[in-house]
Amino acid sequence: MSAEPLFVHYFTLDVFTDQRFGGNPLAVILDGRELTSEQMLQVTREFNFSETTFVLPAESPDTTRRVRIFTPGGEVPFAGHPTIGTAIALVYSGDVSATGDVAHLVLGENVGPVPVTVRLHDGVPVWAQLSTAQHPVEHPPMERTVVAGLLGLSVADLNPSPEYTPAATSCGLPFLIVPLVSRDAVSRARVDDAVFARTLRGTACAMVLVFATVDDVPGVDLHCRVFCPDDGVPEDPATGSANAALGGYLAARTPRQGLLRWTSQQGIEMGRPSRLEIEVDKADGVITAVRVGGSAVLMSEGRLRVV
Question: Which among 118, 210, 256, 283 could bridge 128 via Cys, Cβ 3.0 to 4.6 Å?
Answer without folding.
Answer: 118
